[in-house]
Design a protein that fits this description.
Structural class: mainly beta
Largest sheet: 8 strands, antiparallel, barrel
Number of helices: 0
Distance between the termini: 9 Å
Number of strands: 8
Number of domains: 1
Order of helices and strands: EEEEEEEE
Strand order of the largest sheet: 1-2-3-4-5-6-7-8
Radius of gyration: 12 Å
Helix content: under 10%
Length: about 90
């Protein structure tokens, strides 16, 4: 299991608490997320693409919100809160 932390490039700024936990092919909101933790997956990982699920506060989407590149998660075409291709999260 890995934890996902917002970077300085994230619109909300760097965070010292994890926003998500990564388990297998899903991301779950962690205790550091502003909306609180969730036991239902908010995102599904397919290959290197990260898609919101029906459990996500804004619902599911067929457009990837994020792309995983090494230990970084960059903004994808469906994530409108940041510029495209910006490392908004780091995986630890």
């Amino acid at each position: 299991m890995a934890f996902i932390y917002p970077t300085a490039e994230h619109p909300a700024g760097r965070g010292s608490n994890p926003w998500f936990r990564m388990s297998d092919d899903h991301l779950y909101a962690a205790f550091g997320h502003p909306l609180g933790a969730s036991f239902k997956p908010w995102y599904q990982i397919i290959g290197a693409e990260v898609f919101p699920t029906a459990s996500h506060p804004n619902g599911a989407s067929e457009v990837a919100h994020f792309l995983i590149q090494g230990d970084k998660i960059i903004s994808g075409p469906g994530y409108t809160e940041a510029k495209p291709s910006v490392a908004v999260f780091t995986i630890k």
